[in-house]
Design a protein that fits this description.
7-stranded mixed sheet; 4 domains; Phenylalanyl-tRNA Synthetase, Chain B, domain 1; Phenylalanyl-tRNA Synthetase, Chain B, domain 3; alpha+beta; globular; 10-stranded mixed sheet; 27 strands
Length: 544
């Protein structure tokens, strides 16, 4: 979760009053944040929610505080502007969206430069998914020639001096030699052309999302005019970050001059400052929260949450917020401003004794039996990736629930079985003495006609003498001890050596399998020791 550090005196000036530590902590709680240490001249605030990235700056947090304290937040008024950004169609395949604006205001202090860089980094790293989805840049704009151009070029076609260096590098060399280039080179690994933002003279401003130019893109104390550029692969994300920056600079006394971004015959103006209209069913306040509030009371709470009530069933959301999808989100803000600590508990009207599910009792019995056989229990993440689940296991995909907007390739889908997860653990513990005997019981999810959740148990044994016989003895031992009648049949699966695997049958239905892992699979996981493993479907087994 993101955290920000800033001057307490600066924060008080943005709010318009000095707060006691108790009052500060109370208001931070409304923003789903907390003070990281005792209040001093410098404070660090940690956020426990990532739905409202505009809060990740002293300007945005102070704006939230002012509204919560009953002060009206004024809308941002844009100045007249003739700034134009021409977007070439070549960027469509690599980083298609851009937003820009010009800000004119008081001379930047060293502190404010640091705060703007902090906001830039927090938005890019957290909301922007390490610059892949959205990245932002700030540039000194005094005397900057317009219009700007946004286009993609070949890696060796253009050279410039990247920030923090003195020699010119081609775009390809930036990715190979510059610290930021090496850090973010993976964002452009499949791109045939790289994006560039150029000023009206054709000079490089920035190579997004990697690095600015040291000549034209270095903001320093004393600058009074700034250009903000936001690029990315998500249009709404780019628009939101642009708006957040515009409001932050406006709160610092800067006038905002929008840019017309042209995509051929189509164009739009950034930053986007028009509020969005949200439908709101006030009856949900009573049904969801149990609060019998009047329309005036609800209106007051919504205004403290920075909404504008436009009439029955309609509220306006400020443009720097994109976390509200329906009426329930609005009701949550009513509850937050009302204060969760002010809700009164209702008396119990019924009593039901708790108990353990029969499946859980069966699961716990098998876990105890595995421990008794000398196996160590693991608890791993329910998320995995298809390379581990299928490619390395030498089996086909048998129905996977994948995550649409992944944060990491390592955790890109929900696990469908447990055996490859244990194999992956073995591959990461090759430095540990053998034998290694591991097991895990947990939830797996498979997608066929429907998405089905099941409880599985997987076991692996890794040592010089590990084989089919050892795993057969384990399966027979734990199932017989659990009172399960079963039979074994010949079985073939890509992860096992042919002729050294079997399926477990109960009442004519397969409930699991075991075998000796194929050398091809061992090689893919980097294992030099033999491995035997099994997996049982406990949900299916219990139903038999």
């Amino acid at each position: 979760m993101p955290s920000i550090t800033f001057s307490a005196d600066d924060f008080w000036s943005l709010i318009g009053k000095k707060l006691s530590e108790d009052e500060l902590r109370r208001l931070l709680d409304l923003a789903k944040a907390e003070l990281d240490a005792a209040l001093t001249s410098e404070m660090t605030v940690k956020f426990n929610d990532t739905n409202q990235p505009y809060l990740w700056s002293p300007e945005g947090l102070a704006r939230f505080f002012r509204a919560a304290l009953g002060k009206r937040v004024l809308p941002l008024k844009l100045q007249k502007s003739d700034i134009v950004v021409n977007v070439d169609k070549s960027v469509a395949a690599v980083r298609p969206f851009i937003a820009c604006f010009l800000a004119k205001g008081p001379a930047l202090s060293e502190y404010l430069v640091a705060q703007l860089i902090q906001l830039q980094e927090k938005l890019a790293e957290n909301f922007g998914r390490q610059r892949k989805k959205v990245g932002a840049g700030l540039f000194p704009a005094s005397g900057m020639p317009f219009p700007l151009s946004y286009k993609a070029v070949s890696p060796d076609a253009v050279s410039f001096v990247p920030l923090g260096m003195k020699q010119e590098l081609s775009l390809k060399e930036v990715l190979e030699k510059h610290q930021k280039g090496k850090e973010y080179a993976n964002l452009l690994k499949d791109a045939k052309k790289y994006p560039l933002v150029l000023n009206g003279k054709g000079e490089v401003l920035t190579f997004p999302p990697i690095i600015n130019s040291d000549i034209t893109g270095k903001v320093k104390p004393g600058d009074k005019e700034l250009l903000c550029e936001v690029t990315g692969t998500d249009f709404e994300g780019v628009m939101l970050v642009s708006t957040i920056f515009a409001y932050a600079l406006s709160d610092r006394g800067f006038a905002i001059y929008p840019a017309k971004v042209k995509y051929g015959s189509k164009s739009f103006v950034t930053p986007r400052v028009d509020p969005s209209l949200v439908k709101f069913d006030q009856s949900l306040v009573k049904s969801l929260l149990g609060l019998d509030l009047s329309s005036i009371e609800v209106k007051h709470l919504l205004e403290r949450a920075q909404y504008v009530v436009k009439g029955p069933g309609k509220v306006e959301l400020p443009p720097y917020r994109a976390d509200v999808m329906h009426s329930v989100d609005v009701v949550e803000d009513v509850a937050i401003m009302y204060g969760y600590g002010d809700f009164h508990a209702l008396p119990l009207t019924s009593f039901t004794p708790g108990g353990v599910e029969s499946l859980q009792e069966f699961v716990d019995l098998l876990r105890v039996l595995c421990v008794g056989c000398g196996y160590q229990e693991l608890m791993s993440a329910v998320l995995s990736n298809k390379q581990v689940l299928y490619d390395k296991m030498n089996v086909r995909d048998f129905g996977t629930v994948e995550i649409e907007n992944i944060m990491s390739q390592t955790f890109s889908c929900v696990r469908t079985w447990l055996l490859p997860v244990l194999m992956d653990v073995l591959s990461k513990n090759r430095h540990v003495d053998y034998p290694q005997r591991l097991f895990e019981e947990g939830l797996v999810t498979q997608r066929g006609k429907d998405v089905v959740d099941e409880r599985h148990l997987a076991v692996v044994s890794c040592h010089a003498a590990a084989g089919f016989t050892e795993m057969r003895q384990l399966v027979e031992s734990i199932l017989r001890s659990a009172g399960v009648s079963f039979s074994l049949e010949e079985f073939e699966m890509g992860c096992f050596i042919p002729g050294r695997a079997a399926r477990v049958m109960v009442n004519g239905r397969e409930v699991g399998f075991f075998g000796e892992v194929h050398p091809v699979v061992l090689e893919k996981f980097g294992l030099s020791m033999p491995v035997a493993g099994c997996e049982l479907n406990l949900t299916s087994l219990r139903q038999q």
